[in-house]
């Protein structure tokens, strides 16, 4: 059994809050470069130039790449051989978010209640997903989620009879209705199966995969490619100005489900597909 003081979790989260908002992953940068090379719309090409320049400035000057620095979403893989000591785990994560958003001059976007709308002032509480795994390490993934793209996300309890065609129609229609609102080119995370609450988690988890990394199941990898083509054929294009690149990637995560159900969820990410990880 390995002891780990939760203060190290707080320290890691502080840095992850800043890094995730300042530094865009190389997978996203490569996707922007591909878009710049292959986009046929002159306006679309200009959008990709500006996205690349914006990412460079954010990285070099350590400023947020977007004014919406998002909800702090933390995915945790907690090793079963780790004994957390020194305080409460969830409070340690929130303490890191509180400090990270303050030190990083990151916008505080969380309200304490969905209806009274009073801002908490420190971007807490974070959304924390914990999974127990084998081993003696703690893996943290920080993925700030902007409100504009989150608002365009949807969940639908399809019937099994609707099958693949029903899923395709649901996904493409979700993107079409979103239009320019989620700041395309977008990343589309799809959850399929599980239950009402599990499928939304799967859709968000799908956004963590490096852009373009296919589902290990060839059937779903082919479906990802097919959906990406259909989405890009909508012509929405970069920032909604028209063009070939409405989406940079489509990722599907799957879980077994009830015989009477076919839960499906779409979690859209804007072009600033931000995440960073640390292993303690």
Q: How many discrete domains?
A: 2
Multimeric state: single chain
The chain-level mean pLDDT equals: 97
How large, in whole angstroms, is the Cα Rg? 19 Å
Query: Biggest sheet, open or closed, and with what strands and sense?
Result: 4 strands, mixed
- Beta strand %: 15-25%
The count of helical stretches stands at: 8
Instruction: Find the count of extended strands (DSSP E, 2+ residues).
Output: 10
Shape: globular
Low-confidence stretches: none
Q: Secondary-structure element sequence?
A: EHHHEEHEEHEHEHHEEE
Assign a percent range to the helix content.
25-40%
Brief overview:
40% of the residues lie in helices and 23% in strands.
Topology:
Elements: E1 2-5, H1 6-22, H2 26-38, H3 42-61, E2 73-79, E3 82-85, H4 89-103, E4 127-133, E5 138-142, H5 147-150, E6 154-158, H6 163-178, E7 186-194, H7 196-206, H8 218-232, E8 247-257, E9 262-269, E10 276-279
Helix pairs in contact: 1-4, 2-3
How does this structure look, described?
This protein has helices at 6-22, 26-38, 42-61, 89-103, 147-150, 163-178, 196-206, 218-232; strands at residues 2-5, 73-79, 82-85, 127-133, 138-142, 154-158, 186-194, 247-257, 262-269, 276-279. With 280 residues, the chain is α/β, with parallel strands linked by helices. It folds into two domains: 2-19 and 65-144, no CATH class; 147-273, no CATH class. It has a four-stranded mixed β-sheet with strand order 4-2-5-10. A four-stranded mixed β-sheet has the order 6-9-7-8. It starts with a strand and ends with a strand. The mean pLDDT is 97.
Keywords:
single chain, 280 residues, alpha/beta, 2 domains, four-stranded mixed beta sheet, 10 strands, 40% helix, 23% strand, globular
